[in-house]
Specification:
heterodimer; A: 258 residues; mainly alpha; 2 domains; 3-stranded mixed sheet; B: 283 residues; alpha/beta; Rossmann fold; 12 helices; 15% strand; globular
Chain lengths: 258, 283
């Protein structure tokens, strides 16, 4: 009888201690893993990796595990479905889906990845124009023009700087319509644009987006109202391009890039 | 179906949000309407203190699971994102709101500023979407209560007032505020229409500025409502307990000290319903 009682007490004490330890352990665990900061943390590659991981987590979370109420579960499910739909839709080039996903990436970088005025320059060196690549300069240019002219941005740049002229480039026998890296650098210098932090982050977000879900370097170009790569109206650009000549995007060709 | 906007011209505390919370909660209990409360204020947590915030659940979630991979797009911020990308539909609004009484009352909290980070640009982006959000919500809910920023300087405030079916103008129980309302009513086109109800928050029955005296002074017969100061209500409004309180004091005795508060809130509700019916008849 006594042995039974002692055994019960021992078992109960053991179970109690195990429970206490597991609760204490859980309390000690850091709930949200903070972003480990080193030299490479704020590079475009690391940021893209983070965005991919987070969006993957958000879309794959099992909502039944969280123990939500019926109504809350229904709403969360719908929101998750919306996000999934947007992530799928943006790969087909849907402009609204793209906007939505870009807004999400913007929030993730700002609120979770703690991107700020100082560390954003590690991704794209906005403060030192000499370190900017042609792609960086073009991205900044197109973003700033897009703010003002929306989908007419590229047309405006081409018109303003008279870029739609036949040019001979080295190694080519035929003249062609091409916008070279030098031209973009010249325009960038002439424009003397002042970017706010939100502008800078938007440029970074676009760069991450175009490699993650978009159409790489032509992602922004194809949204514009231009002929050739555009999925939009071609009316505006018919006057700029002559169909008998080769139209080329110098920026898109690695051989022309610096 | 109907947008009811609570607004005040003064930056002083007029009890606007508290009046809105009381009227909307009471209406949700007394009438079978599907309603939504939208707050357009910047970093104001009065409504969260009334009905319970979203942060509480998040903390609980963090305790329950190690890696709370919850969606980032909650509340008004998430909805503004949907609106910015032209993905918002009347049905999507309910996914971002918080339920107070199922199928009756829901709430969409206003923008919460984050510490150590500039928020003005983000708020401006969201503010520009309030009109869209209210318009869409109006298609899905029977009634949309809007807790609007004070003053008339902001164009968005004017636009929201313009699209409102009923405007509840909140004033303090002071003569200068009542005079100010009178002047505004005569000078401002937005407030000279027939869809205005004057509301006095934190009302004191023993003051000489009683409903009778004010209505005589302003020449308004019936479009005045009052929300008296009530200890229980103001306590509940700081303890996230308003929804429960209204269920408890719903049928109080006439001798109960809260009876007057309940009666006045019910009257304020009826005035809004009556006003809406009156406006519908005219149309």
């Amino acid at each position: 009888m006594l042995i039974n009682f002692i055994l019960i007490v021992i078992v109960l004490l053991g179970a109690g201690m195990f429970l206490m330890r597991s609760i204490a352990k859980k309390k000690e665990q850091k709930v949200e893993h903070e972003v480990e900061v080193d030299d490479k943390t704020y590079t475009l590659e690391k940021m893209t990796e983070f965005v991919k991981k987070r969006l993957d987590e958000i879309t794959k979370i099992n909502l039944y595990d969280i123990g939500l109420s019926e109504e809350e579960l229904k709403r969360r499910k719908k929101k998750k479905y919306e996000l999934k739909k947007a992530l799928k839709g943006c790969t087909y080039g849907d402009v609204n889906d793209k906007k939505y996903v870009k807004e999400l990436i913007y929030d993730l970088l700002l609120k979770e990845y703690n991107v700020d005025e100082t560390n954003i320059s590690k991704a794209i060196p906005f403060d030192i124009p000499s370190l900017l690549t042609d792609q960086d300069k073009f991205d900044i240019l197109i973003y700033m023009y897009k703010k003002e002219f929306a989908y007419e941005a590229l047309t405006q740049i081409i018109k303003k700087y008279n870029l739609a002229v036949l040019k001979y480039i080295s190694g080519e026998t035929k003249p062609c319509y091409v916008i070279t890296g030098e031209e973009i650098s010249d325009i960038f210098e002439k424009e003397q644009m002042v970017l706010s932090f939100a502008d800078k982050l938007n440029v970074v977000v676009q760069r991450i987006y175009q490699h993650y879900k978009g159409y790489s370097s032509i992602d922004e170009v194809r949204d514009m109202n231009i002929d050739g790569v555009s999925r939009r109206s071609i009316w505006t650009s018919r006057i700029l391009f002559i169909t008998s000549c080769t139209n080329r995007w110098g920026l898109l060709r690695p051989s022309i890039r610096k | 179906m109907a947008v009811i906007t609570y607004w005040s011209n003064s930056k002083k505390q007029t009890g606007q949000t508290m009046s809105l919370a009381a009227v909307a909660t009471s209406m949700a209990i007394e009438h079978n309407y599907k309603m939504l409360i939208i707050s357009t204020k910047y970093d104001d947590n009065t409504l969260e203190l009334c009905f319970g915030g979203t942060e509480k659940n998040r903390k609980l979630l963090k305790k329950l699971i190690q890696n709370p991979t919850t969606s980032v797009d909650t509340g008004i911020e998430g909805l503004a994102k949907m609106a910015n990308s032209s993905r918002m539909t009347p049905e999507t609004i309910q996914n971002y709101s918080r339920v107070i009484y199922k199928n009756r009352l829901e709430i969409l909290y206003g923008y919460k500023a984050e510490k150590d980070r500039p928020n003005e640009e983000e708020y401006l982006k969201i503010k520009n979407r309030y009109k869209d959000i209210i318009q869409n919500a109006n298609k899905f809910y029977d009634m949309v209560f809007v807790d609007l920023n004070s003053g008339l300087e902001d164009d968005i405030v004017r636009e929201i007032l313009k699209m409102s079916d009923v405007i509840v103008v909140n004033v303090e129980q002071k003569i200068d505020m009542i005079n100010d309302f009178n002047e505004l009513k005569n000078s401002e086109e937005l407030l000279s229409k027939n869809n205005i109800i004057l509301n006095i928050g934190r009302f004191d029955h023993f003051s000489k500025y009683s409903v009778k005296n004010i209505s005589r002074y302003l020449g308004i017969k019936k479009d005045i409502s009052v929300i008296p100061y009530n200890t229980l209500y103001f306590e509940a409004a700081s303890e996230e307990d308003v929804a429960d309180l209204f269920l408890k004091i719903r049928k109080v005795d006439e001798t109960d000290r809260n009876a007057n508060f309940v009666k006045e809130v019910k009257q304020a509700v009826e005035k809004i319903v009556y006003k809406l019916q009156e406006l519908q008849m005219r149309m």
